[in-house]
Amino acid sequence: MSERRYPNESQAYRDARDALLRDEQELVAKTKAVADKRRKLPPGGALKEDYVFQWAGGGNASRKPDRKLGERVTFSELFGDKDTLLLYSFMFGPNWDKPCPSCTSLMDGFDRAWYSVAQDAAFAAVAKAPAERIAAWARERGWSQIPLLSGYESNFQADYMCQGDSDDMQWPVMHVFKKRDGAIFHFWGTESMMNHVDTVWPYWNLMDFTPEGRPDRDTPPQRFRSAFLEKHYLNAK
Fold first, then answer.
1. Which of 66-70, 75-79, 177-181 bottoms out in mean pLDDT, i.e. has the lowest?
2. Domain at 52-189: CATH architecture
């Protein structure tokens, strides 16, 4: 029995909380065990090509703070002085009115986490929309740290399963790449469309702590709507 007590709590509450704590500890242990298995994956395939993106703003991806909007950036440059690259492809196609609200929620968190992550690994985000539209959306959201790229003229999203049968049918995918002996290899990528990066998503995880739990909605609450997403994804279910 735990010695922890909060003011005026009942014994029934404490007993139930102690039982839940054991479940929470098991969940953390399971998460760490899965991460350990992930680290032991055999080498993935070599990068298909040194893709060329367009700079869309944000952080300093390769120690060049004077990059211009639309400037060409190769995939290999994104590593900077690191050997590992996390690259998140978010849903914002060339003809979308607004990007995906869920991806935007994730990107809000990723932008603030970028500095800490970037001490150990390169971290960037890419979308299929043109660089100018990504930059405009970043200004509206206040994204300023995570490097932002446009894959508008690149085959990266198509090659690495970040889209469907057109440039506008984008999927949210987190990829990790590893540089080894002068070459770049794919290490890991999300392969589940539902809650694919759930453990690093602040909104849903914070709501899990509440008595009400996760609200019954498809996307986090936002002050904007994405007509393209609603028509082609949410209403198509």
1. 66-70
2. 3-Layer(aba) Sandwich (3.40)
